[in-house]
Design goal:
The chain is mainly α and about 270 residues long. It has 10 helices and no strands. The protein has 2 domains: about 110 residues; about 140 residues.
Length: about 270
Amino acid sequence: MFAEHWFYHFIIYIYALSLLFAFSDLMQPNRQGRRLAFLFLVAVWVSQTAFFIWKTTLGLMPVLTGSDSLMFYSWALVTVTLVIDRLYEMHLFVFAANLIGFATSAVNLFITPSTGDKLATPLLSELVFIHVVMVFLAYALFTLATVFSILYLIGNSLLKQKKWNQTLRRFPSLGSLEVFSYRLTMLGVPLLLLALILGLIWAYQKVGGGFWFDPKIIGSLIVLGVYSFYLYKRYSGGWNGRQLSWWSVLAFLMILVNYMISNAGLSFHRWL
């Protein structure tokens, strides 16, 4: 337990260093600062990956407890942002996305949900493990899609006000922001759908037909419907980029509400 707590601290420190160098690069473009921010972020990813490998070698199944699920969510954010940073060099997006990842790591360290042994034992199955992994991967994709949407709304507002400042020059084009938000959502929706199918199969086996009245399941189905509606509107061309971005932000707020339900004792998902 002490070694694990120390490991969390170490990740927080190098995460903070990455953000500090990234912020300095945003304020005053600096190739050296940008490089250090990237290297520290890689160190965060390596440390988190090593953590999961270590847990696996001990015979423990990570991602199933509240602590590990938040760590996995942060790892997924870091993984996707590293790929995007290398391929497209969207430094402002990477900084904004990793602010969320850092906040998640901090919550993981200081406000770690407790998980009782009575719940941990029956949940250690391959089916539920894959379910939880897919859910948090989908949540990570939706989070990054929301970051792109927020940047779109900010950039669109600055353009309408004709504020041609240094901040606006660091923004990708509005078209690029909207397309990336759409693509990440397009990946997240089928992933969440598959995760829900696996979760419903497991729930039927363990809980019985009454699981349909579980608030978390109802909320998850609503979230899936909201994001599916986003894809429909994007595909049909019924909404413009601004409307789609606001809907993306609203959908993410519903994810936050749904996650809080799972930790409020109202659902058998409290173990998450």
